[in-house]
Amino acid sequence: MRARSAAAATGLALSAAGFVAAGGVGSSGSSSPLIEGADLFVAKGYAACHDGPDTQSAVDVGPPLADAAAWAGARRPDMDAESYLAESMTDPTAFTSPTRTHDDLMPVLNLDEGEVDRLIDYLLDG
Questions:
Q1: Which residues pair with 55 in a beta bridge?
Q2: What pLDDT was estimated at residue 81?
Q3: Positive or negative CA dihedral for 11, 17, 21, 24?
Q4: pLDDT tens-digit map of 91-123
Q5: Fold of the 2-125 domain
Q6: Where do the domains of the chain lie?
Q7: Which among 112, 103, 115 has a CA at the least distance from the CA of 40?
Q8: Which long-range contacts does 10-13 make (Cβ < 8 Å, 24+ apart)?
């Protein structure tokens, strides 16, 4: 089951990346950061495993990221929502979500600082 879920998630991520690269929603230079964050959420594969502000995961693997503004700031003591989300994206093994229900680990996606910022804006404002 886990191998099938991973294969499905990989396929969805690659399909989404192709959509964005081919000029999907928000790919023009004039798009807002919120739209870019929504596109990145799909293109980087987050939407395959995590529910987002306006997406539902294809495979039920990762904890939901919808409504992050309501919980991310309280997840770790002395860490605000932006810092928690940034750490979760850049070092996913630093903290295990209490909502995690499986043994699969979040992969390191090698996001640049701008991508992290746009994803955080999308998750907190989406």
A1: 52
A2: 96
A3: positive
A4: 988 888 777 766 677 888 889 999 999 999 999
A5: Cytochrome Bc1 Complex; Chain D, domain 2 (1.10.760)
A6: 2-125
A7: 115
A8: 10/45, 10/48, 12/45, 12/47, 12/48, 12/58, 12/59, 13/43, 13/44, 13/45, 13/48
- Cβ neighbours for 29, distance < 8 A, ≥ 6 positions apart: none
Which residues neighbour 111 within 8 Å (Cβ) at sequence distance 6 or greater? 44, 89, 90, 119
Read off the pLDDT band of 34 (50, 70, 90).
low
End-to-end CA distance of the chain: 31
- The structure's pTM equals 0.69
**81 and 68 Cβ atoms separated by less than 8 Å:** yes
Which tokens in the block code for residue 126?
């989406």
